[in-house]
């Protein structure tokens, strides 16, 4: 009887969060799946089209291109911040201690505190033709390299990716640094006695023992790349042309500008499926590594 009562009380505590999650997450998800099988402008009657919306996404080069752009952003939003975060955290774990370490963590984590819309606006100014980045290039004799970075067809996507690196590097570094502080110093002392250098310690001890933290970083940053919207919308709005168009931008345009709710829902469902396809193996490998 006591166990049954505790179970009921536990569910009562969980119930408010479960209701909110159902109303704002599960219900919209189910509605999006439903809408993806219809042609609908958001106002009139819905027309059943089956899988036609999904076929349109796969056949339309512009819509399919947004998915490829999202995967390109994974390099900047995920791989680079995680790799740099490992190196920076390892270096700072050795040299930045005490008050210096606290200041370093605060400075590195600051971009995470700044709203993404504000970050996009700031970097839009910095990367503009008369912006600070081009002024620095001119000052060091690289005036030929100056350009409107966010308006250049070749450099717009890497420029957006650079903003993502700036935003996510601090998160990865602080998380990995925290993990490094939990590692047993005796492991490093034994390695040094055996003549191991910094890189050997980093590759053979630090990275393998931080697979759980690396998995968390990869999960968060890959989702940020595939579901990117704020930074891209504020900095380029998907331009020039469709060079920086990502699924989040295209879903917004289809749903709220072109009133193609069914097609927007199909793209959203495909994006969710892609996120799961990419994230689940990362979670599985991380779980296997820590067991």
Features:
MetI-like fold; single chain; mainly alpha; two-stranded antiparallel ribbon; about 75% helix; about 290 residues
Task: Please give a structural write-up.
The chain is mainly α and 291 residues long. It has one domain: MetI-like fold. The chain contains 13 helices and two strands. Strands 1-2 form a two-stranded antiparallel sheet. Strand 1 and strand 2 form a beta hairpin. Helix 1 crosses helix 13 and helix 3 runs parallel beside helix 7. The radius of gyration is 23 Å and the shape is globular. The two termini are 36 Å apart. 31% of the residues are buried.
- The total of beta strands comes to 2
Query: How large is the count of helical segments?
Result: 13
Which structural class do the helices and strands define? Answer: mainly alpha
Query: What is the chain-wise order of helices and strands?
Result: HEEHHHHHHHHHHHH
Tell me the overall shape. globular
Unreliable parts: none
Helix content: over 70%
Can you tell me the CATH class?
Answer: Mainly Alpha
Would you tell me the overall average pLDDT?
Answer: 88
Shape-level CATH architecture: Orthogonal Bundle
Q: Tell me the name of the CATH homologous superfamily.
A: MetI-like
How many individual domains? Answer: 1
CATH topology: MetI-like fold
| Rg over alpha carbons | 23 Å
Walk across the major sheet and give the strand order: 1-2
Strand content: under 5%
């Amino acid at each position: 009887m006591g166990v049954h009562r505790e179970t009921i009380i536990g569910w009562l505590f969980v119930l408010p969060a479960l209701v909110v999650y159902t109303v704002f997450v599960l219900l919209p998800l189910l509605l999006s799946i439903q809408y993806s099988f219809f042609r609908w402008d958001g106002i009139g009657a819905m027309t059943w089209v089956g899988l036609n919306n999904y076929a349109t996404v796969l056949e339309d080069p512009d819509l399919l291109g947004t998915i490829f752009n999202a995967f390109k952003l994974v390099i900047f939003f995920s791989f680079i911040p995680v790799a740099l975060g490992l190196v920076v955290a390892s270096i700072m774990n050795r040299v930045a201690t005490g008050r210096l370490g606290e200041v370093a963590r605060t400075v590195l984590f600051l971009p995470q505190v700044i709203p993404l819309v504000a970050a996009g606006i700031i970097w839009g100014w910095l990367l503009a033709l008369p912006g600070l980045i081009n002024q620095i290039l001119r000052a060091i004799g690289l005036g030929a390299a100056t350009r409107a970075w966010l308006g250049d067809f070749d450099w717009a996507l890497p420029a957006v990716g650079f903003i993502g690196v700036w935003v996510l590097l601090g998160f990865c570094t602080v998380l990995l640094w925290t993990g490094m502080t939990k590692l047993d110093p005796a492991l490093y002392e034994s390695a040094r006695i055996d003549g191991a250098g910094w890189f050997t310690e980093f590759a053979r001890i630090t990275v393998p023992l931080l697979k759980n933290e690396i998995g968390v970083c990869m999960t968060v940053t890959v989702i940020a790349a595939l579901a990117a919207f704020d930074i891209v919308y504020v900095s380029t709005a998907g331009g020039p042309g469709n060079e920086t168009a990502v699924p989040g931008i295209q879903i917004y345009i289809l749903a709220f500008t072109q009133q193609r709710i069914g097609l927007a829902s199909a793209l959203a469902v495909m994006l969710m499926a892609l996120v799961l396809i990419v994230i689940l193996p990362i979670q599985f490998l991380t779980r296997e590594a820590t067991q």
